[in-house]
């Protein structure tokens, strides 16, 4: 552990005090006795003596907004060097190990509060010493889709799975859901390798895991091994991946990768580690499908039948969020004749919800299309304007451009395009009718009396048992438990249905019940975000996920919609804290104290306003879908404007 004086940056001070970083900056300007920066920081990121900060906070009557996770972050920053985190990862992965010092006690407390996965993420932050270039986590929904593509393939169900760039182990954990028991992984960062080993050892104890640290391209930890499947989200745009040292490497069956094609080196690395006929799914940037330098390798992959599908995901599906990534489905040749067709899917064309992907529909469309294609039914695999089955010889032109949007657009059928456009226009008309109907319910309002509300703290309602917070459990779900929908804080902000699914070993809390008040802990910087609603429909039975507070009211004393409406009001801005992400402290929430009859009257109004917002989102999404379908048909020559 470091011998230097424990220090903290402004971000840690804001977490300690439960305020924003802007508040910390104001304290520095307005209070002459605020601790001075100590050596070791910079002008943009000054550091402060932790003991002096704590003493100053106590002296000004500021109670630390402490939690086990916040205490752990502070201790890691103050007492643990980045290169010491690997040993702490191993401690997390061994529940029998005794906590012998302050940091390990804090780790145990954090595990009890938020579970193994999030605790390992906190340790990883310190081990990486902040964000590291090229360290891109795999979004949980994308990881689940990648594993499900393996399960839907005609190749045998995988028992042994490799991830040569395993990161935090998300993909290998998903492989255990498929029944895989032999898990192998490698990562160039020792902290990430240790994190994966700890996660698998704790969350998938029945599986045999072999996780190594090292560069899988330059120092392959499994040089002669073949696996039933490969799942990977390899690094992007590497310039120093070893092009010169590996020029004669036997893995380059489909041509030597140029220096600027590290992703195609990873693709061939994956194929080299597959048994004949086995499948790999890789998450890659879109440039790999079209860069001129990779044309030769793409051509050879197609000729050999090694590339079976290219699936474009919408931007935001996984980090980096601004890029629409692609899934490449590869299969090592050797069983049967090479495939003469290729599946393309452009999921950006699928309908969305409030500007966000409708993930359940996206996943089911992709999986069903891939399943039908892989079983040999090209017609059933084709979804107009979304998927296309293309002959390999039609792609082998001067560019060998495998961009799904281009291939799907070229395959647009005029009859299907016209029918889809007319259907979308019909759906839009229905949604606009619903919007007009709901808008009528909020037309008439009476003038208020202007009387000030008499507020009551939610904490008092909880103490009086009129309201209770449904707390999440940290007990991991059994490995054989079926997946359940997960509602996130972002789902609430977007006004959409649960978008996530549970994963093996993840904590599963008490399911959401009818009448529960669902509140997003996340708020934007524009005041009140409409992230509170009463559970109904698809919410029921879902598991509350990250960023979700669940309140259960006594309906005889507190009307749920009344509670939800005032919780989401601008008056509760005082309950928000944080820096770049604004979060909600339930103890600071306040609602008016009104008789139950008055609560129900206001609750009815809040429910109508919620329906108005949801219907408006749905109508806007229908308008975008109709416009996009018509535009695609016009530009592809499948539709023409009316004459006259």
From TrEMBL:
Indicate the segments forming the DNA methylase adenine-specific domain, all copies.
131-409
Taxonomically, the superkingdom here is Bacteria
GO biological processes: methylation
Q: Which UniProt keywords apply?
A: DNA-binding, Methyltransferase, Restriction system, Transferase
What CDD domains does its record include?
AdoMet_MTases
Q: Which residues cross the membrane?
A: none
What GO molecular function annotations does the UniProt record carry, in alphabetical order? methyltransferase activity
Q: Does the keyword DNA-binding apply?
A: yes
Q: Does the keyword DNA-binding apply?
A: yes
One Pfam match, given by its short name, reads N6_Mtase
Enumerate the PANTHER family for this protein: TYPE I RESTRICTION ENZYME HINDI METHYLASE SUBUNIT (PTHR42998:SF1), TYPE I RESTRICTION ENZYME HINDVIIP M PROTEIN-RELATED (PTHR42998)
Could you tell me what this protein is called? N-6 DNA methylase
Organism of provenance: Nocardia caishijiensis
